[in-house]
Amino acid sequence: MRRKIVAGNWKMNKTFSEAQELMNQLSTYQKKHTSGCEVYIAPPSLYLTAAMDIFTQHEVRVFSQEVSLHTEGAFTGEISVDMLSSIRATGTLIGHSERRQYHGETDANCNKKVKLALDKGLIPIYCNGETLEQRKSGQHFNVIKDQTEVALFSLTPDEIKKVVIAYEPVWAIGTGETASPEQAQEIHAYIRGLIAEKYGQEVADEVSILYGGSVKPDNAKEIFSKPDVDGGLIGGASLKIDDFTAIIKAFD
Ligand code: PGA
């Protein structure tokens, strides 16, 4: 059975005290409820160690929003896989569309980062997705195919099983426009099919594929009910405790 996951990507939001408050609320919620999914958050890196101190029972798993391509040294502002494993973070986002758009992230880099993370026992959440132009011109399947192959297909079967994929159509991120549940299912099934072709169905069936892009309490349940959608990567709605927990409850 593959993992069901609701992951919050906080991006560059919240002061330290606001972040602590939300983490404490989430910890309390998770300790009281038996959620039908695993719950992850990716707070700003400055708050990662505070998050580790709060979620001591692993009621929420802590992820970085980004990781360096380099392992150590003169790379000002970067965070390494060793640093993440030394604080016992669970994993890291890799290839988020905002990193691609504003920081020149590429799939070749993502491939290296995914391998570095796996080597340290970290779970990579590899993000991909097409832009509006690419969808309008009917290129979305090819874009997803290229992204998935370049970033992931040099992994071994055992390695790819540990990767979480987040399909996030760029046109749906932070726009309030969500892919329909059918559109999400179509791409998720396509990605799983690509993995099955390369690694076999058994391996493909173990890879969790999350949907991201304007998931909200009122659309989460329907999107998550699709057979190849194993949860969500949530931006804006992960910043409010009521919204985030309502999305977690979609798996109850
Ligand atoms: P959003 O962001 O839920 O605010 O659209 C999702 C993401 O970027 O991961």
TrEMBL record:
<dbReference type="InterPro" id="IPR000652">
    <property type="entry name" value="Triosephosphate_isomerase"/>
</dbReference>
<feature type="active site" description="Proton acceptor">
    <location>
        <position position="168"/>
    </location>
</feature>
<feature type="binding site">
    <location>
        <position position="174"/>
    </location>
    <ligand>
        <name>substrate</name>
    </ligand>
</feature>
<dbReference type="InterPro" id="IPR035990">
    <property type="entry name" value="TIM_sf"/>
</dbReference>
<comment type="pathway">
    <text>Carbohydrate degradation; glycolysis; D-glyceraldehyde 3-phosphate from glycerone phosphate: step 1/1.</text>
</comment>
<dbReference type="GO" id="GO:0046166">
    <property type="term" value="P:glyceraldehyde-3-phosphate biosynthetic process"/>
</dbReference>
<dbReference type="InterPro" id="IPR020861">
    <property type="entry name" value="Triosephosphate_isomerase_AS"/>
</dbReference>
<dbReference type="GO" id="GO:0019563">
    <property type="term" value="P:glycerol catabolic process"/>
</dbReference>
<feature type="binding site">
    <location>
        <begin position="9"/>
        <end position="11"/>
    </location>
    <ligand>
        <name>substrate</name>
    </ligand>
</feature>
<dbReference type="InterPro" id="IPR022896">
    <property type="entry name" value="TrioseP_Isoase_bac/euk"/>
</dbReference>
<keyword id="KW-0324">Glycolysis</keyword>
<keyword id="KW-0963">Cytoplasm</keyword>
<comment type="subunit">
    <text>Homodimer.</text>
</comment>
<comment type="function">
    <text>Involved in the gluconeogenesis. Catalyzes stereospecifically the conversion of dihydroxyacetone phosphate (DHAP) to D-glyceraldehyde-3-phosphate (G3P).</text>
</comment>
<protein>
    <recommendedName>
        <fullName>Triosephosphate isomerase</fullName>
        <ecNumber>5.3.1.1</ecNumber>
    </recommendedName>
</protein>
<comment type="similarity">
    <text>Belongs to the triosephosphate isomerase family.</text>
</comment>
<dbReference type="Pfam" id="PF00121">
    <property type="entry name" value="TIM"/>
</dbReference>
<comment type="pathway">
    <text>Carbohydrate biosynthesis; gluconeogenesis.</text>
</comment>
<dbReference type="InterPro" id="IPR013785">
    <property type="entry name" value="Aldolase_TIM"/>
</dbReference>
<keyword id="KW-0413">Isomerase</keyword>
<feature type="binding site">
    <location>
        <position position="214"/>
    </location>
    <ligand>
        <name>substrate</name>
    </ligand>
</feature>
<dbReference type="GO" id="GO:0004807">
    <property type="term" value="F:triose-phosphate isomerase activity"/>
</dbReference>
<dbReference type="GO" id="GO:0005829">
    <property type="term" value="C:cytosol"/>
</dbReference>
<feature type="binding site">
    <location>
        <begin position="235"/>
        <end position="236"/>
    </location>
    <ligand>
        <name>substrate</name>
    </ligand>
</feature>
<keyword id="KW-0312">Gluconeogenesis</keyword>
<dbReference type="GO" id="GO:0006094">
    <property type="term" value="P:gluconeogenesis"/>
</dbReference>
<feature type="active site" description="Electrophile">
    <location>
        <position position="96"/>
    </location>
</feature>
<dbReference type="GO" id="GO:0006096">
    <property type="term" value="P:glycolytic process"/>
</dbReference>
